[in-house]
Amino acid sequence: MAYWLQSLLIFFIMLFLWAACQGADVTIAWDPPPQGAVSSRVYQTRAGECVLNAAQYTALEPDIAAPASQATLPVEPGSSYCWLVRFVDAKGMVGLPSYVLGYRVPQPALTAPTQLRLPAGGTR
Q1: Fewest Cβ atoms closer than 10 Å to its Cβ: which of 5, 32, 47, 121?
Q2: pLDDT value of residue 19
Q3: 123 within some domain
Q4: Is residue 121 in some structural domain?
Q5: Which domain covers residue 77, as residue numbers?
Q6: In which element (H, E) is residue 99 found?
Q7: How many distinct structural domains can be found in the chain?
Q8: In-domain check, residue 37
Q9: Helix (H/G/I), strand (E/B), else coil: 65
Q10: Distance between CA atoms of 82 and 103, rounded to whole angstroms?
Q11: Domain containing 62 — which CATH number?
Q12: CB neighbour burial string for 67-80, b if at least 16 within 10 angstroms, e if fewer
């Protein structure tokens, strides 16, 4: 009986770890938008080295409406990302870029072993 309970426990632990590793997201946050800003525009690049040149970044859509000051973004394990944020006013004019944030997403953990069995002559 204890063997089956342990096996069931291991199965549910492996199922939880598998579900937890399926998607990867990262949440970035910045200072609240100043008076007059209607939104924040997040820019992203997957370059290996982060630079402050906004022309090397791609704007992510849609803009984040003020007063929100964070975004959760999908990422791929093993990839490097750089982000910067610019505030947007009511006329659509963008402000100066923020500092740059860089992050390398770690590789996922090794997969769990499958087809567990007792060796020949093993005990339960």
Answers
A1: 121
A2: 44
A3: no
A4: no
A5: 24-104
A6: none
A7: 1
A8: yes
A9: strand
A10: 6
A11: 2.60.40.10
A12: eeeebeeebeeeeb
